[in-house]
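Hi R.,

As promised on Friday, here is the backbone we talked about, encoded as structure tokens. Could you run it through your design pipeline when you get a chance and send me back a sequence?
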């Protein structure tokens, strides 16, 4: 009997843990960017290694598509439990609210780090001859690493709009049964290939696409790029449908050896095809080269996503107090981590330590500060109820109850 079959159907500990891991891996990803062999980051360090960029590549392949797939599943779960009005109130509070509240201080902290780094490179004084910042427009709005909250809000609105006519027309459940059959047909060893096809087209059509970075991150502009919306929208949509067919999670879990082996092979091939672990910062312009690169990268994205999903279902479906705590804390950690990472990178940039020591210090310091602040300021206060949907009283024994849905 599989591990998921031993769990009550409403306790998706593996998916909740994976969602938290996806957010926490964002800390690792941003910490690694300072140590790329080519400078791509505000605090680019002279101590570098292709290992850092290879780590970034591996994490970036699956992290956000995995997150959005799970977010879609939990969105359907919440709609069923709270109804449309309750869902809208919750999402406005826990997604739109943090974006509105934290965007300004986070951006201010990042700008402060940028000025600090510029002063270091200018011999200790702030340069005065730099270019002026671009004006704020729909295309230039800096969402920072909080872009995922904006994309979530777009997907929630799109889902409610698309769902409404079907919910009204499907009085006898016929539409729903048809959708469930289609979802069942989608799930199998072929699922990553089906999802990769539209993403490959979107990447091929994307202007100025740099294959090493996979899905272009929609962190600038209020209108996300088409490739990102194709990838994250299809992952979210499939997750939404999977909650209607929870039985399919056992099928995905059973395919974990296939998904894992294929993901390792396709991911390795993708890294070779994009030129190895040293990023090429020039966009690919040859259409004959761009097409196979887009295809292999799209397939690598979704094979690695389903490998992560199946492994979590297979090996993390039981309750774990540690995994539950990290999952609960991951939202807060991700919101506050980027300025902390930047400060850490700047503080160690002139040290003579090897890159991996600097990386470890930055990562460890960021996680320590953000987790400590979560425990002291968030978990047991009204902030915990706001961000996570519940406030954990002090000295209360942890309960294996279902974590609040994203």
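Update: got your reply. Pasting your designed sequence below so it's all in one thread:
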């Amino acid at each position: 009997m599989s591990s998921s079959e031993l769990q009550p159907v409403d306790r998706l500990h593996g998916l909740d843990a994976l969602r938290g891991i996806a957010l926490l891996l964002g800390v690792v990803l941003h910490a690694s960017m300072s140590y790329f062999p080519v400078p791509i980051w505000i605090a680019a360090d002279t101590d570098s290694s292709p290992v850092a960029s290879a780590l970034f590549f591996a994490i970036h392949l699956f992290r956000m598509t995995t997150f959005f797939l799970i977010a879609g599943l939990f969105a359907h779960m919440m709609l069923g439990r709270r109804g449309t009005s309750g869902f809208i109130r919750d999402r406005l509070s826990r997604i739109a609210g943090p974006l509105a509240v934290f965007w300004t201080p986070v951006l201010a902290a990042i700008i402060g780090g940028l000025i600090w780094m510029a002063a270091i490179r200018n011999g200790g004084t702030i340069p005065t001859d730099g270019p002026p910042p671009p004006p704020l427009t729909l295309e230039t709005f800096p969402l920072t690493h909080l872009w995922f909250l904006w994309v979530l809000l777009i997907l929630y609105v799109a889902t409610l709009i698309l769902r409404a006519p079907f919910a009204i027309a499907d009085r006898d459940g016929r539409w729903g049964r048809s959708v469930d059959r289609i979802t069942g047909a989608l799930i199998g060893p072929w699922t990553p290939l089906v999802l990769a096809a539209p993403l490959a087209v979107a990447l091929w059509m994307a202007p100025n696409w740099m294959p090493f970075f996979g899905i272009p991150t929609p962190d600038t502009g209020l209108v996300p790029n088409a490739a990102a919306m194709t990838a994250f929208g299809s992952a979210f949509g499939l997750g939404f449908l999977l909650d209607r067919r929870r039985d399919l999670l056992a099928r995905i879990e059973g395919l974990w050896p296939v998904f894992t082996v294929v993901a390792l092979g396709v991911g390795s091939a993708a890294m070779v095809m994009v030129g190895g672990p040293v990023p090429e910062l020039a966009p690919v312009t040859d259409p004959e080269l761009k097409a196979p690169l887009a295809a292999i990268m799209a397939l690598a994205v979704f094979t690695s996503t389903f490998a992560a999903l199946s492994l979590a279902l297979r090996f993390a479906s039981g309750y774990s107090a540690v995994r539950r705590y990290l999952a609960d804390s991951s939202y807060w950690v991700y919101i506050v981590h980027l300025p902390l990472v930047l400060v850490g990178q700047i503080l160690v940039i002139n040290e003579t330590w090897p890159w991996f020591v600097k990386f470890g210090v930055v990562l460890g310091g960021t996680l320590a500060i953000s987790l400590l602040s979560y425990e002291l300021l968030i978990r047991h206060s009204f902030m915990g109820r706001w961000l996570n949907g519940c406030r954990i009283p002090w000295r209360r024994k942890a309960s294996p109850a279902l974590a609040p849905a994203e």
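One thing I noticed while checking it: The mean pLDDT is 91.

Thanks again,
M.
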